[in-house]
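Observation: inputs received (chain + adenosine-5'-diphosphate).
Thought: call the complex predictor directly.
Action: predict_structure
Action Input:
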Amino acid sequence: MRSLHDCPAPAKLNLFLHVTGRRADGYHLLQSVFQLIDRADRLHFDLRDDDQIRRTNDVAGVPEEQDLVVRALRLLQAEFARRHGRLPPGISVRVDKVLPMGGGLGGGSSDAATALMAANALWQAGLSREELMALGLPLGADIPFFLFGETAFAEGVGEALQAVPGPDCWYVVIEPGVAVPTPAIFSAPDLTRDSKPVKIADFSSHTDSCSTVGFGKNDLQDVAMRLFPPVAEAVEWLSSHGDARMTGSGACVFCAFSSEDAADQVLAQVPGKWTAWKAKSLKTHPLMKSLLQNQGVVE
Ligand SMILES: C[C@@](CO)(OP(=O)(O)O)[C@H](O)COP(=O)(O)OP(=O)(O)OC[C@H]1O[C@@H](n2ccc(N)nc2=O)[C@H](O)[C@@H]1O
Ligand SMILES: Nc1ncnc2c1ncn2[C@@H]1O[C@H](COP(=O)(O)OP(=O)(O)O)[C@@H](O)[C@H]1O
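Observation:
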């Protein structure tokens, strides 16, 4: 197998996100439920005749050397060399972006996770899911979740993951048109940093219907709304249709619905100044069966 084309890198939503403390190194301790949804970037991988890792297309705002995909592939290539005493062939990768950057949808992290899964299969590198998660974590706190591949209750900085049944919902997502830089939110003096820890069972008892998906809150939302008024505007508008909240450190805002029709009705009313779309919750990562478990990889 020399190629893997059209590999999805799905987005995530943080159904709630609590900041419960701060580590000695300044990173914040979180509790969150990460939900995969069926809106995705698409990545295409081709083995090369040399040993270079190259991105073949332009991605606005992301130079090749900084792309999490390129950096993840180079990390895995070095790990392969450490284990096998030789470099595996290089990879040319094309990254077709659909997910907005700085949107709180985890696009960059998901791209990197998909790249790790694809290269692990193309090189037959044989790393386990846990080994890939450990390799990806230094590049981004959300990368382990995408490799975990199912709805997860996350703690720590997002690396301590436990599977949890998520609600089966349709989501309307609004892109407010700003990119929120994560550091700006975490460094704000008025950020809530002392939310009381919750238990998985507290969340699980709220997952039977989409109207009760509003367990907890997003502690990053008030700061994001203050610093980025378009986020506040989108939250206010969507709140008139349900329990609207921001995902991650923003900027995207979402609301859950129990049917596609209900989502369509709200989507049709979203003011034209915003990009908005609907997405369905995913129980598992679309590459989970084929790549992560190394079963029947499709070329
Ligand atoms: C908060 C989440 C929830 O999913 O937001 P999104 O990125 O998805 O919006 C993520 O955990 C974000 O993780 P990640 O995307 O790796 O954050 P980075 O951009 O590396 O973090 C930028 C900066 O934010 C601060 N930071 C980040 C994560 C964290 N748990 N505590 C922090 O204090 C640190 O100062 C860090 O240097
Ligand atoms: N492949 C990539 N896709 C998106 N962003 C990337 C990528 N590689 C690096 N980045 C950087 O990561 C930042 C965060 O992007 P992203 O993960 O999409 O947002 P968020 O963390 O808010 O969900 C971007 O602003 C960009 O500078």
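Thought: report the result.
Final Answer: Residues 181 and 288 are 30 Å apart (CA to CA). The first helix runs from residue 68 to 84.
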